[in-house]
């Protein structure tokens, strides 16, 4: 399997408005692929097609093909699809009624990653370490997420997603709502995960993209403007629009 | 896109619930229509145009209870509006913050008090009070008006039942009106303030905006009152007598059923007559509830624009 | 001219306050008289008010309301599981698939039960349960109470489930949960306080029902029955029967019972308000 994710000629309409216009994209396994662009370009929508969370939006019409790990996402059961894909949302949403421990453990147990207490403990620790949150919460695993800061909650969400041992990780502007210090920590954690998962991350900040991306897609108004290896695009954008975006003028 | 297998199974798991709830309705219609059939076949239209209850002789006519139900409910809504409107205005216009919350909670509390409690109080205190201070004076001085033309003896009458039921639905109607008031976008209130309107003028304007909602609350209150049983049985006097005087004892359909259903099985047509009367009340309440809710919904949609 | 406007405004405020006071007066009077008369009865009867059975009509002894008290709880508590099972599943269905025809049907039916007069429900349950069983029973009463409680329980459970922010649905889907797991492991726990409040209010309302139970439980008050297949009595039914008799002692008991009922109702009301204050979502 050459690509972890392949998107071919994807068109998406929400309430008859053309939101995604003939998008095509290939993402190699174990890389960080960044989808960047100005606000409102359809980046989040594109991300949510990959794990079919787009199903939750009413009045949609889709055409085109999206393959995740070789399977067409529109032809398989979405609940099964989502077991291989973890997601971190723009606004952190750890389950408020579960402890820090159980927020992560439930993801592991549900997906068969671990069953008994000992294995669960191990996975929880592993996930928190990968999310760079272990040291800060190791003594209060049975406390609830409302005691954590925004940045910590987001890393908790990352740990929860990792506990599924997914093949693919989708990150929707994960640092948008947290402070710069925590944002950097989160970015570090993300970069360190490349060996375990394929990462697709959405951001509106070209600087963040430059820091973490192996490959990028620039989207504007629902259409792909330019895409390719990060090094090439950041140094030699072939499109005036891309150049403007990278300079921060858009 | 494929309809998920999980979703299909999920939906199927609700078939039992849907089945139970629908079959309740079906059973209901079957039981009531089949049980009413006998008496309607036997008595025809006379069942609803005459006023007799004589199971021994198997003669029945439920005109008095039907009219009594409507009269009492009408009085109830009238009284209730009379009290609910000022209460609603007080809560929405003049009270703020904690006081308002406490007040609303008190009204909410009143609204949930079991009607049997209202019945006890009405029997022992309201009825005598109404007889001595309202019914007797009205009869004495305005007895030439047909409504007041009979002498209130016991204090149990359609009038009493109407007032008692009316008092009991005040919290209900107040809550509908207050909730509707809250739905009125604040821009209207701000507009009133902007043109320097006083409290009184603002209230007048907002009330006129809320007219459909108030009408809806009256209709829903009427439906509520029509279905009310315990207060009615205890205060209405339980008489099949039909007269224009509201100070005379009378009947409502629910009071009739409550008083006679247990023994109705001993006779041939009694049960069937009661089922038929129940159907009448049922249809009336359903239609009124439907109408009231529709008016309310339509108004809600219009007002939020 | 503007002086008249001011005066009229002040008169208006006065009128509103006055009429509101008059509106509340009967209700306050009711609560006070129930309290006074009820306390008199219970004080005279002592603790036996809650443990004895009602006395014969001409009696100086007040006796008690034990059969009705126990019967009220048994009938209402038996109705709760039925109500919750039906209302909660209907609510889940309407939250997950609001536009599905099955869901819409259940929604309309559940809400329209609210317009049925309670005495009609009693007649229905009589034909449905009492006649086949050939006896009155607490079970019949429980069925009747469930039918009455269904609309309110359904709408408030729906409301509770809908109040859970959409983002948690996305979170649970994103870790591979299906709908049932999402509802049971995430939605219901998050909405638990609202659900508990709904159940408490349903309980309070059911305890106060009179007409609903008229032809179902049998008004059996010469002994305490715990078996739900046996006839029993409830407090509102006792009050209803006793106040329509001419016997003084029965009227006294009615006041006492009314106070007990009022007390239970207010206690639940206050509990609910306390829980709700903690919920500030």
From TrEMBL, chain A:
<dbReference type="InterPro" id="IPR003439">
    <property type="entry name" value="ABC_transporter-like_ATP-bd"/>
</dbReference>
<dbReference type="GO" id="GO:0035435">
    <property type="term" value="P:phosphate ion transmembrane transport"/>
</dbReference>
<dbReference type="InterPro" id="IPR017871">
    <property type="entry name" value="ABC_transporter-like_CS"/>
</dbReference>
<dbReference type="GO" id="GO:0005315">
    <property type="term" value="F:phosphate transmembrane transporter activity"/>
</dbReference>
<keyword id="KW-0067">ATP-binding</keyword>
<protein>
    <submittedName>
        <fullName>Phosphate ABC transporter ATP-binding protein</fullName>
    </submittedName>
</protein>
<dbReference type="InterPro" id="IPR027417">
    <property type="entry name" value="P-loop_NTPase"/>
</dbReference>
<dbReference type="GO" id="GO:0016887">
    <property type="term" value="F:ATP hydrolysis activity"/>
</dbReference>
<dbReference type="Pfam" id="PF00005">
    <property type="entry name" value="ABC_tran"/>
</dbReference>
<dbReference type="GO" id="GO:0005524">
    <property type="term" value="F:ATP binding"/>
</dbReference>
<keyword id="KW-0813">Transport</keyword>
<feature type="domain" description="ABC transporter">
    <location>
        <begin position="5"/>
        <end position="246"/>
    </location>
</feature>
<dbReference type="InterPro" id="IPR005670">
    <property type="entry name" value="PstB-like"/>
</dbReference>
<keyword id="KW-0547">Nucleotide-binding</keyword>
<dbReference type="InterPro" id="IPR003593">
    <property type="entry name" value="AAA+_ATPase"/>
</dbReference>
From TrEMBL, chain B:
<dbReference type="Pfam" id="PF00528">
    <property type="entry name" value="BPD_transp_1"/>
</dbReference>
<dbReference type="InterPro" id="IPR011864">
    <property type="entry name" value="Phosphate_PstC"/>
</dbReference>
<keyword id="KW-0472">Membrane</keyword>
<dbReference type="GO" id="GO:0005315">
    <property type="term" value="F:phosphate transmembrane transporter activity"/>
</dbReference>
<dbReference type="GO" id="GO:0006817">
    <property type="term" value="P:phosphate ion transport"/>
</dbReference>
<feature type="transmembrane region" description="Helical">
    <location>
        <begin position="141"/>
        <end position="172"/>
    </location>
</feature>
<keyword id="KW-0592">Phosphate transport</keyword>
<comment type="function">
    <text>Part of the binding-protein-dependent transport system for phosphate; probably responsible for the translocation of the substrate across the membrane.</text>
</comment>
<feature type="transmembrane region" description="Helical">
    <location>
        <begin position="9"/>
        <end position="32"/>
    </location>
</feature>
<feature type="transmembrane region" description="Helical">
    <location>
        <begin position="102"/>
        <end position="121"/>
    </location>
</feature>
<feature type="transmembrane region" description="Helical">
    <location>
        <begin position="62"/>
        <end position="90"/>
    </location>
</feature>
<keyword id="KW-1003">Cell membrane</keyword>
<comment type="similarity">
    <text>Belongs to the binding-protein-dependent transport system permease family. CysTW subfamily.</text>
</comment>
<dbReference type="GO" id="GO:0005886">
    <property type="term" value="C:plasma membrane"/>
</dbReference>
<dbReference type="InterPro" id="IPR000515">
    <property type="entry name" value="MetI-like"/>
</dbReference>
Automatic annotation (TrEMBL), chain C:
<comment type="similarity">
    <text>Belongs to the binding-protein-dependent transport system permease family.</text>
</comment>
<keyword id="KW-0472">Membrane</keyword>
<feature type="transmembrane region" description="Helical">
    <location>
        <begin position="139"/>
        <end position="161"/>
    </location>
</feature>
<dbReference type="Pfam" id="PF00528">
    <property type="entry name" value="BPD_transp_1"/>
</dbReference>
<dbReference type="GO" id="GO:0005886">
    <property type="term" value="C:plasma membrane"/>
</dbReference>
<keyword id="KW-1133">Transmembrane helix</keyword>
<protein>
    <submittedName>
        <fullName>Phosphate ABC transporter, permease protein PstA</fullName>
    </submittedName>
</protein>
<feature type="transmembrane region" description="Helical">
    <location>
        <begin position="253"/>
        <end position="276"/>
    </location>
</feature>
<keyword id="KW-0812">Transmembrane</keyword>
<dbReference type="InterPro" id="IPR051408">
    <property type="entry name" value="Phosphate_transprt_permease"/>
</dbReference>
<keyword id="KW-0813">Transport</keyword>
<feature type="transmembrane region" description="Helical">
    <location>
        <begin position="113"/>
        <end position="133"/>
    </location>
</feature>
<feature type="domain" description="ABC transmembrane type-1">
    <location>
        <begin position="69"/>
        <end position="272"/>
    </location>
</feature>
<dbReference type="GO" id="GO:0055085">
    <property type="term" value="P:transmembrane transport"/>
</dbReference>
<feature type="transmembrane region" description="Helical">
    <location>
        <begin position="182"/>
        <end position="204"/>
    </location>
</feature>
């Amino acid at each position: 399997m050459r690509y972890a994710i392949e998107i071919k000629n994807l068109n998406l309409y929400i309430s008859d408005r053309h939101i995604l216009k003939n998008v095509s994209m290939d993402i190699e396994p174990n890389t960080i692929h960044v989808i960047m662009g100005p606000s409102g370009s359809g980046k989040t929508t594109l991300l949510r097609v990959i794990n079919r969370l787009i199903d939750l939006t009413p009045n949609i019409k889709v055409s085109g093909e999206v393959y995740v790990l070789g399977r067409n996402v529109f032809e398989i059961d979405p609940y099964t699809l989502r077991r291989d894909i973890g997601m971190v949302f723009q606004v952190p949403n750890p389950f408020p009624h579960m402890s820090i421990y159980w927020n992560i453990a439930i993801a592991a147990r549900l997906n068969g990653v671990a069953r008994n207490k000992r294995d669960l403990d191990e996975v929880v620790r592993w996930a928190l370490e990968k999310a760079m949150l272990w040291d800060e919460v190791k003594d209060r695993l049975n406390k609830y997420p409302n005691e954590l800061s925004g940045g910590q909650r987001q890393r908790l969400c990352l740990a929860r997603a990792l506990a599924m041992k997914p093949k693919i990780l989708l990150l929707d502007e994960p640092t948008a709502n947290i402070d710069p210090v925590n944002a950097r920590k989160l970015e570090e954690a993300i970069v360190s995960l490349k060996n375990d998962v394929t990462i697709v991350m959405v951001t509106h900040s070209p600087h963040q993209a430059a820091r973490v991306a192996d490959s990028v897609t620039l989207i504007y108004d629902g259409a792909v403007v330019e895409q390719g290896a990060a090094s090439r695009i950041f140094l030699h954008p072939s499109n005036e629009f891309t150049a403007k975006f990278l300079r921060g003028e858009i | 896109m494929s309809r998920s297998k999980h979703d299909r199974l999920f939906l199927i798991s609700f078939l039992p619930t849907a089945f139970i709830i629908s079959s309740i309705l079906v059973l209901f219609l079957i039981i009531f229509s089949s049980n009413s059939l006998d008496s309607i076949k036997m008595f025809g239209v006379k069942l609803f145009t005459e006023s007799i209850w004589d199971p021994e002789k198997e003669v029945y006519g439920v005109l008095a209870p039907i009219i009594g139900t409507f009269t009492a409910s009408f009085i109830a809504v009238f009284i209730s509006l009379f009290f609910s409107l000022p209460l609603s205005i007080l809560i929405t216009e003049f009270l703020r913050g904690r006081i308002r919350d406490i007040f609303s909670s008190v009204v909410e509390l009143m609204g949930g008090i079991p009607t049997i409690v209202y019945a006890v109080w009405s029997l022992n205190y309201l009825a005598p009070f109404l007889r001595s201070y309202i019914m007797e004076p009205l009869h004495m001085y305005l007895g030439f008006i047909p409504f007041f033309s009979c002498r209130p003896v016991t204090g149990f009458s359609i009038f009493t039942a109407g007032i008692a039921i009316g008092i009991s639905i005040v919290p209900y109607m107040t809550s509908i009106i207050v909730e509707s008031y809250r739905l009125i976008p604040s821009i209207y209130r701000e507009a009133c303030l902007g043109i320097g309107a006083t409290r009184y003028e603002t209230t007048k304007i907002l009330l006129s905006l809320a007219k459909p909602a108030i009408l809806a609350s009256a209709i829903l209150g009427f439906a509520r009152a029509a279905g009310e049983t315990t207060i009615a049985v205890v205060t209405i006097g339980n008489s099949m007598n039909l007269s224009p005087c509201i100070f005379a004892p009378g009947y409502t359909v629910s009071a009739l059923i409550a008083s006679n259903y247990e023994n109705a099985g001993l006779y041939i047509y009694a049960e069937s007559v009661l089922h038929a009367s129940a159907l009448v009340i049922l249809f009336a309440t359903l239609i009124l509830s439907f109408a009231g809710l529709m008016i309310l919904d339509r108004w809600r949609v219009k007002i939020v624009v | 001219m503007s002086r008249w406007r001011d005066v009229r405004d002040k008169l208006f405020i006065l009128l509103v306050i006055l009429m509101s006071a008059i509106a509340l007066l009967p209700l306050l009077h009711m609560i006070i008289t129930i309290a006074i008369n009820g306390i008199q009865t219970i004080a005279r009867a002592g603790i036996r008010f809650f443990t004895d059975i009602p006395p014969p009509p001409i009696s100086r002894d007040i006796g008690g309301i034990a059969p009705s008290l126990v019967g009220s709880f048994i009938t209402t508590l038996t109705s709760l599981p039925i109500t919750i099972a039906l209302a909660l599943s209907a609510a889940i269905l309407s939250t997950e698939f609001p536009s599905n025809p099955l869901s819409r049907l259940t929604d309309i039916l559940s809400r329209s039960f609210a317009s049925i007069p309670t005495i009609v429900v009693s007649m229905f349950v009589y034909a449905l349960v009492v006649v086949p069983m050939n006896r009155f029973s607490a079970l019949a009463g429980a069925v009747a109470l469930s039918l009455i409680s269904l609309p309110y329980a359904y709408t408030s459970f729906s409301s509770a489930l809908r109040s859970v922010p959409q983002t948690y649905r996305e979170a649970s889907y994103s870790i591979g949960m299906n709908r049932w797991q999402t509802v049971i492991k995430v939605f219901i726990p998050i909405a638990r306080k609202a659900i508990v409040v709904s159940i408490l209010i349903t309980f309070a309302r059911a305890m106060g029902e009179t007409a609903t139970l008229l032809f179902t439980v049998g008004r059996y008050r010469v002994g305490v029955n715990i078996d739900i297949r046996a006839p029993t009595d409830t407090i509102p039914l006792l009050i209803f029967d006793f106040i329509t008799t001419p016997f003084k002692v029965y009227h006294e008991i009615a006041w006492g019972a009314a106070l007990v009922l009022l007390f239970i109702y207010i206690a639940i009301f206050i509990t609910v308000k306390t829980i709700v204050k903690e919920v500030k979502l």
